[in-house]
Amino acid sequence: MNRWIAFWSIFLKDVRTYYLKPPNISWGIIFPLAWTGMFFIRAGRGLDSIPDLLPGVMTISILFGTTSVLAVTITFEKRQRSFDRLLLAPIPLDLLMLAKTSGAILFGIVNAFVPLLIASFLIDLSGVAWSLVIPAVVLISVVSTFLGLFIAVSVSQVFEAQTFSNFFRFPMIFLCGLFIPIMSLPVFVRPLSYALPVTYGVDILHGAVRGGNVMSYTTDFLILGAFCIGLFLLSLHNVRRKWIS
Amino acid sequence: MPKVNGTIIEVAGLTKRYGEVLAVDDISFDVGRGELFGFLGPNGAGKTTTINVLTGLARPDSGTIRIGGIECTHNPKAGQHLVGTVPDESNLYPELTGYENLCFCAALHGIRKNERRRRARELLATFGLTDAGDRSFEGYSKGMKRKLTFAAGIIHQPPILFLDEPTTGIDVASARQVRQIIAQLHRQGTTIFFTTHYIEEAERLCERIAFIVNGRIVRTECTTDLLQPIQGKNVLVLSVSGSGANLSEEMNAAFPGHKSQSTSPGQLRIESTEPINIAPLIRFLDERDVQVTEARRHLPSLEDIFVQVTGIDAELMRKEREKAGGRGANQ
Question: Which of A5, A15, A239, B108 is the least crowded, having the fewest Cβ atoms under 10 Å away?
Answer without folding.
Answer: A15
